[in-house]
Amino acid sequence: MGKVSLNINGRAYGLGCEAGEEERLTRLGQRLDARVAQMADQFGQIGDLRLLVMAGITLIDEIEDPESTVELQIEERLGDMTKKLDAATKARESTEVEAVEGLMTAARRIERLAERLAETGH
């Protein structure tokens, strides 16, 4: 049997678990602590028990209404992807402008060189 110490809202809670489940339980405890912190930020330090109950209720609500949670995640990811696409588009446009400017500079040099060659009769 394994043991894990979880830190939730600044308090340590020792829990037993099956051998090999320590990492998963620790990760779940971290998620619960993050949710409790979110509740504390929103409502203040209204007591560990109330914060834990509120965090538990919001987590259960997400489990029972997975569609809204999935939709929210999709919207967040879509927003992130849109930002990345915009940044990539701007970078591509900038690169294209630089390439055109480079080609124009090269063309002007070639024209000047051709004029000089024409003047010297070569």
From TrEMBL:
This is Cell division protein ZapA. GO terms for cellular component: cell division site; cell septum; cytosol. It comes from the Bacteria. Keywords: Cell cycle, Cell division, Cytoplasm, Septation. The lineage of its organism: Bacteria, Pseudomonadati, Pseudomonadota, Alphaproteobacteria, Maricaulales. Its main location: cytoplasm. InterPro entries: Cell_div_ZapA-like, Cell_div_ZapA-like_sf, Cell_div_ZapA_N. Activator of cell division through the inhibition of FtsZ GTPase activity, therefore promoting FtsZ assembly into bundles of protofilaments necessary for the formation of the division Z ring. It is recruited early at mid-cell but it is not essential for cell division. It comes from Algimonas arctica. Homodimer. Interacts with FtsZ.
